[in-house]
Structure prediction request, 149 residues.
Amino acid sequence: MSNLSLNQGKSKGGDPKAELSNLSPLVAGMRLTYKVVVWLFAIGIMLQVFLAGLALFWNPGQWSSHIGFSRVLIIFPILILILSFIARLPVSLRLHSAGLIAVVVLIAVCANLPSGMGYLSALHPVLAIILIGQTMNIARKTQSLTKAN
Prediction:
């Protein structure tokens, strides 16, 4: 069997436009959905930081909003990971998507530590900064996934 027949189904040179044209409508749609969900998660993280600011600087009763909204935000990284497989994204993006879940779990653990472990609890906002950075990195990398031919 010649190399020509082996390579017929593969795009040459890693051209993103050629790769996009070879995608099924389902995969292309899931890539767009992935991109939208990642951006919604980034906006949600910013809203979560705003709610924490409200509780710190305005009304301590707002902590319930911050805690309640965190239960909604946990859905996004799980959905992002699932979509990364349906959208047939590169392994690096799948790993970054799984990393979002890991950081969210660490944030939850830090928030629920006893007060005697203050130094570890203080990692909660640091991990939130890492989470927004990682989410924005994923959002930036998904820009080329949905560009039209």
